Amino acid sequence: MIAGAGGQFLASPMDRVKIILQIEGASSSTSSLPRTRGTWRTLRDIVRREGGRGLWKGWVPNCQRAALVCLGDLTTYDTVKQWILRNTSLRDTAVTHALSSFSSGLVSATLGTPADVVKSRMMSQQYHHGNRGSLYSSSLDCLTSTVRQEGFWALYKGFVPVWTRMAPWSLTFWLVYEEIRVLAGIGNF
């Protein structure tokens, strides 16, 4: 969780730029940022308008999401793999790794999607003087407001795309990781 959150903290400026570029063309009620023409210009515009700290707006929910995704991926993969090895006739092979990674991708998406919704909303909202968000004052405020106004399932908007993005990544990562360990003579995870 710490490694995931730390890595995401370092990447937060580019994630904010990505969110701004993705909402390009949205109405001015959704974003106070003017139309932009690319990554580097967007970075420069944020720094000019908001200072260097503006690059890290939304870093808290960003890091929360990364920590939850890492937690879900690593713990589920290991837990499911050990359960399969103890309770089935399957051996420590690519089939076991694929089943474990499928499960870890599902749990990661389940844990990460609500945080992804909060992160996206926090990063794309307008900010007023004093760095106060126009819609939400914190991640918790965003979470509770979303549930109150739109219902619990609003936290899972985009779940299918999130999972279909995470599942192949998880499958590829764990299959390759396990094979590299075997080829290096370390043995399976």
From TrEMBL:
Highest taxon of the lineage: Eukaryota
Pfam family, any one: Mito_carr
Solcar repeat placement: 1-83, 92-183
Subcellular location, principal: membrane
Identify the stretch annotated as signal peptide in this record: none
Q: What InterPro entries would the database entry show?
A: MCP_dom_sf, MCP_transmembrane, Mito_Metabolite_Transporter
What subcellular compartments does it reside in?
Answer: Membrane
Q: Which residues cross the membrane?
A: none
Membrane topology per record: Multi-pass membrane protein
- GO CC, alphabetical: membrane
Keywords, in A-Z order: Membrane, Repeat, Transmembrane, Transmembrane helix, Transport
Identify its protein family. Belongs to the mitochondrial carrier (TC 2.A.29) family.
Protein's name according to its UniProt entry: Mitochondrial uncoupling protein 4
